[in-house]
Specification:
The chain is mainly α. It is built from 7 helices and 3 strands; from the N terminus they run ααβααββααα. Strand 2 (81-86) and strand 3 (89-94) form a beta hairpin.
Amino acid sequence: MFRHGRQHFGRHFGRHFGRDFAPGRGSGRGGLKFEILAVLADGPRHGYDIMLEIEKRRGGFRPSPGSIYPALQMLEDAEFVRGREVEGKRVYEITDSGRESLKEHTEKGGFDRDADEESVREMFVGGASSLRSLIEAAKQVARLGNPRLIRATVDILDEARRDIYKLLAEDE
């Protein structure tokens, strides 16, 4: 019986963390929509170009097409971006309301486009490395199958998650 729980914990734990983990995911202060708007503030681009530019700005972590294209559709529906066909590709450009939204986000401290990109990239790469190490440690615990260690590990992970959400709440 416990074997199933161990396999589930070890097999799925890393799958839900790390693959698309990167700054800007979700609807928080540095949400993907604002990353897209920031890219488009520099000029029109098609979806794949937007993904590549975000990857470059993130230091090697590319958002998936499954997150970019729905976000672009949402931004287009909200009239923050405008899409048009150019040579068989859909090209997006930021609208005035999109620029205003990006400006408000930046003024609220969402992100500083002029910040030292290299130091932000280094911090994120270090954080991603820490997350991968944490995942590996949790997988080792899962492989051991010791119920006491697994419970303690889950408690530690839950506490870390709560602490991160506290940080986010304080930063609002």
